């Protein structure tokens, strides 16, 4: 079997071609070159020998090589890796910063290993990504202000830039096209580009998680298969459907239906109960205003455009919280509306679709 001296770099190509597992395992510990360590880990995953599992599992905690180690473990398909991957997901989703490259590799590994223990971790990832999408949407406006300030502050001797980036030509092109406030327009474009890329990555990762969850619903997960399929059947709409932020009362609520009033000031709705009525108008309004802050800004834009103090009643920009009497008068699907209300109380989110109406 081929061996190498500690004085020489291991040749990963030769080791891989000869399927020298012991040689590759030794190469993983070669401290003088990180790229060689990563190449050795990749080779172990591609060869598929389960002897590498015990070596690779602890490397999920090693920030230098964990992404490539996770991918290799996925290719090896050994269930011994699932527990440590789930623990890593728990730390990532609970932390301030979530490394989406590492999470993406983990999701792919879960898809290849196909073990029911991963289901809870996948749901945790999905919930974290939902929050990330809302936060990134809010950041768009903050980035516009950041770029505007940076561009204005850097204006020196006919040059505008940010650090080593020079925007002079872009400003000139906009001015030649007759744009009156070229610097402001450029700031908007830069913010849209940076946030747009980040949002696209997060949404693509969310789609990947959903795709893997769909696979699990039809995959043999051992003893957990039946329980998972029952859970998925009850909850798949909640996790597959887009949502928007809602502001529920801190304590008990009041029935807020003006058209089908149950009396003034409205029936008391104990916290965690009631029926949430989402009109098609709310869905249309909230498609580009998923967070509460985005709603407030959109309303201000409407007021500015109309030059009037516009009032938005429940059912226009926000769902209507109903008591049972109001829900029956509206003839809405009580089961769906009740589930939506419970979800709104618990998560502060509602599905971006209209509440079904019974015939």
Overview in brief:
The chain is mainly alpha-helical and 359 residues long. Among the domains are: 1-76, Leucine-rich Repeat Variant; 245-351, no CATH class. The protein has helices at 12-17, 21-28, 34-47, 53-56, 66-76, 82-94, 100-113, 119-153, 168-176, 182-217, 225-240, 280-286, 292-306, 324-330, 334-347; strands at residues 161-162, 165-166, 243-245, 253-254, 268-269, 275-277, 320-322, 349-351.
Entry keywords:
359 residues; mainly alpha; Leucine-rich Repeat Variant; two-stranded antiparallel sheet; flat; disordered N terminus
Average residue pLDDT: 81
Q: Count the strands?
A: 8
Q: How would the global form be characterised?
A: flat
Unreliable stretches covering 5 or more consecutive residues: 1-5
The SS-based structural class is: mainly alpha
Order of strands across the main sheet: 1-2
Give the radius of gyration: 27 Å
Q: Please provide the ordered H/E string of secondary-structure elements.
A: HHHHHHHHEEHHHEEEEHHEHHE
The total of helices stands at: 15
Largest sheet: 2 strands, antiparallel
